Amino acid sequence: LSDRLQETIKKIKGKGKVTEQDVKEMTREVRLALLEADVNFKVVKDFVKRVRERAIGQEVMESLTPGQQVIKVVKEELTELMGGDESKIAVAKRPPTVVMMVGLQGAGKTTTTGKLANLLRKNYNRKPLLAAADVYRPAAIQQLQTLGKQLDMPVHEEGTEENPVEIAKNAVAKAKEEHYDYVLVDTAGRLHIDGDLMGELQEIKEAVNPDEIFLVVDAMTGQDAVNVAESFDEQLDISGVLLTKLDGDTRGGAALSIKAVTGKPIKFAGMGEKLDQLETFHPERMASRILGMGDMLTLIEKAQTQVDEKQAKELESKMRNASFTFEDFLEQMEQVKNMGPLDEILNMIPGANKMKGLQNVSFDDKQIVHVEAIIQSMTKNERQDPSVMNASRKKRIAKGSGTSVSEVNRLLKQFEEMKKMMKQMSNTKGKKGKGMKFP
Ligand code: GDP
Ligand code: MG
Questions:
Q1: Which domain holds residue 262?
Q2: Residue 307 pLDDT > 60
Q3: Is residue 335 part of a domain?
Q4: Which end of the chain has fewer CB atoms at under 10 Å, N or C?
Q5: How far is ligand 2, taken at its centre, from the CA of residue 232, in Å?
C-alpha cells in the first residue's frame, strides 16, 4: 500500500489520544490506498464506513492505546473482508471427492491442479487422481501428464478427440473403482469469458456433480480477477477461489475484493511455480501483509529474541553507572543490524524516537557501516576508555577505518552524548515505571 498510508499508520500508532479528525484522516488514507490497490469501489466504501463507526465508537476511545486500537480495527475489518476464518476443502461422504478446476486460460489451472493434488497427499494423506478435460490443446494434456509424473500420480486422459464431459465422468468412475479419494478435473479455459466455455463447464458440472468447484484466478490481474470471479460464480456457483501468482502480486487488491463481491472464500494461494508452492490462504496474514504490519510484527518478534532479558539487564546497569563502552556499543550495533532497517526498529522501541531526535545522534544505515569500521579500528583500551584518545590515535583510527578524523571526532561526541542520555533515561526509569530496552 501507499507510503502515505504507512506514514499515517505510524503516526496514529503512537497516539495516546485519537480524535475524530485523526480517524477521518486515517480512513481517508486507507480508502485511497485500497482504491490504489485496485479494490472494488463499493467494497472500499462499506469498509471505510465500518472502520469509521468502530474507530470513533467507544471501543477505541476508551482504550488505553487508541492509536493501536484503530490499527487493530482496520486489520480486523480487512481480515473479515477477506473471509474471516480459514476455510477447508470438502470431503465427500462417499469417495471420491470431486473437485472441478475452472478459470481463464493462463490463470494457473493446470499447475494448481498439480499443486492441490500434492497438498492433498502431503497434508491430508489423500490419494488423488488427476483428470485431463482440457481437450482443445494437446499441450494441456501433456502438461498435466508431466505434472503427474513429477508427483508420481496417475492422470486419466483420453486424448483430444473425446468429449470433456465424458472424460470427467469416466475419471470419476475410475476413481470409484480404484479407490481414489479425490478426482481433480482440470478443465479448459479461454482468454475471455464466453458462452461456449461456460456451457461446457455447466455440462461437466451436471455430469459429475462436483463437491467443490474451484475458480483459479491470477492475482496479478487485480480488479479483472474480481470481475472474472463474479461471472464464473454467477454461471457455475463456485465453491471457492484459488488465487495464483500471489508471489508476484504486491498490491493484493484481488484478494481483498473477491470474497466481498462473490461471497466465496479464497481457499488457497499460489506462491510460485513449483509444485509445493500452494498455501492455505490465511486472511489475517494477508491483512497484515496488506497493511505492511507483517514486517513490523516480525521485527518485534526479532527484537524480543535478539535482546534477551539478561543482556538487557546487564546493559541497563552499565547505562546507570555510565560504564557503557564502545565494546558494548559495537555489540549492540551487531544485534540491531541483524534485525533490519534501523529507523523502523527505533520506532518500535519505547523512548528511542526521542533518542533519534537528539542533536548529533543520527542513525542511518549507511553511517552505521562507518561507525562500525571506526570502532573496529580502535584498540581494546580505547574502546573501554575513549578519554585516552589523542590526535595521533584519532589519525590512526581514521586511516584504519577508511574514514576521516572529523568522522572519528563526531562519533566520539555522539557517544558521549548518548552516554549522557542513557544515564538520564535510566534515572527516570523508576519514576515512570517503563524502562527502555536498548538494543
Ligand atoms: P492454465 O492455462 O490456467 O492451466 O494455466 P497454467 O497452469 O498452464 O499456468 C500458466 C502459467 O502460470 C505457468 O507458466 C505457470 O507456471 C504459472 N503459474 C501458475 N501458478 C503460479 C503461481 O502461483 N506463481 C507463479 N509465479 N506462477 C504461476
Ligand atoms: Mg491448463
A1: 97-291
A2: no
A3: yes
A4: N
A5: 17
Ligand 2 centroid–CA 106 distance in Å is: 7
Among 52, 81, 110, the domain boundary falls at 81
Residues in contact with ligand 1 by the CB-under-6-Å rule are: 103, 105-112, 189, 216, 244-245, 247-248, 270-273
Shared domain for 303 and 408, answered yes or no, is yes
Instruction: For residue 386, tell me if it sits in a domain.
Output: yes
Name the pTM for this structure. 0.65
Tally of structural domains, the chain: 3
Q: What is the pLDDT of residues 258-289, one digit of tens each?
A: 888 888 999 999 989 999 999 888 888 777 77
User: Has 188 been labeled as part of a binding site?
Assistant: yes
Q: What is the pLDDT of residues 43-94, one digit of tens each?
A: 888 888 888 888 777 666 665 566 667 777 888 888 888 886 666 889 999 9
Same domain, 58 and 125: no
Residue nearest to atom 16 of ligand 1 (CA): 273
Residues 71 and 108 in one domain: no
Q: Where does a domain end: 260, 291, 322?
A: 291
Say yes or no: 348 and 384 in one domain: yes
Check whether residue 361 and residue 339 sit in a common domain: yes
Ligand sitting nearest the alpha carbon of 275: 1
Q: Give the rounded percent of residues in the chain with a pLDDT score beyond 70.
A: 72
Q: Are residues 427 and 358 in the same domain?
A: yes
- Nearest-atom number in ligand 1 for the CA of 272 is 24
| Whether pLDDT at 336 is above 70 | no
Ligand 2 centroid–CA 159 distance in Å is 14
Q: Which of 217, 244, 266, 277 to mutate to test the pocket of ligand 1 (most atoms within 8 A of CB)?
A: 244
Does 103 show up as a binding residue in the annotation?
Answer: yes
Q: In what order do the strands lie in the sheet with 212-218?
A: 155-156, 128-133, 182-187, 97-102, 212-218, 240-244, 266-270, 278-280
Summarize the confidence of residues 192-198 as an average pLDDT: 89
Please report the pLDDT score of residue 354 as a whole number. 44
Q: Cα of 184 to ligand 2 centre, how many Å?
A: 13
For residues 362 and 284, state if they share a domain.
Answer: no
Give the CATH number of the domain where residue 244 resides.
3.40.50.300
